[in-house]
């Protein structure tokens, strides 16, 4: 019970992740979406190609600029970036 009181909460009362950064989660989600589209592509091939293309374009955007729509959503939910995690560890 006492440990629950020490958990930091982000937006909407969701507990802040302790070990996952935005960069890890974005890569994990993109990989999962691409893998799922490859597994079920026989049912809706054109729609899934568009979805895989959207994920690929966002990965390119994330690599070039350093952000993508999913990283903005995750940041607003309270997930820290790797740089924020490093700064917090220095304190």
Question: Which helices and strands appear, and what pairs or packs with what?
Answer:
Blueprint: H1 2-6, H2 22-39, H3 45-65, H4 69-76, H5 82-90
List key phrases describing it.
mainly alpha; single chain; 5 helices; about 90 residues; about 65% helix
Query: Structural class from helices and strands?
Result: mainly alpha
- Record field, number of beta strands: 0
Ranges where pLDDT stays below 50 over 5 or more residues in a row are none
Summarize the main sheet. none
The proportion of residues in beta strands is under 5%
Q: On the 0-100 scale, what is the average pLDDT?
A: 82
What is the CA-based Rg, rounded? 16 Å
> What level of helicity do the residues show?
55-70%
Which overall shape is indicated by the principal axes computed on the Cα atoms? Answer: elongated
Cα end-to-end separation: 27 Å
Number of domains: 1
| Helix-strand pattern | HHHHH
Count of helical stretches = 5
What would you note in describing this structure?
With 91 residues, the chain is mostly helical. It has one domain. Helix content is 67%, strand content 0%. It has helices spanning 2-6, 22-39, 45-65, 69-76, 82-90. The longest helix has 21 residues, at 45-65. The two termini are 27 Å apart. The model has no long low-confidence stretch (mean pLDDT 82).
Briefly summarize what is shown.
The chain has helices at residues 2-6, 22-39, 45-65, 69-76, 82-90. With 91 residues, it is mostly helical. The longest helix is centred in the middle third of the chain and has 21 residues, at 45-65.
């Amino acid at each position: 019970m006492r440990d629950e009181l020490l958990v930091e909460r982000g937006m909407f009362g969701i507990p802040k992740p302790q070990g996952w950064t935005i960069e890890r989660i974005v890569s994990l989600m993109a990989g999962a979406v691409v893998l799922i589209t490859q597994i079920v592509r026989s049912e809706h091939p054109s729609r899934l190609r568009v979805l895989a293309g959207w994920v690929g374009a966002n990965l390119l955007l994330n690599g070039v600029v350093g952000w993508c729509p999913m990283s903005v959503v995750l940041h607003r939910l309270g997930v820290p970036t790797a740089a924020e995690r490093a700064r917090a560890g220095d304190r």
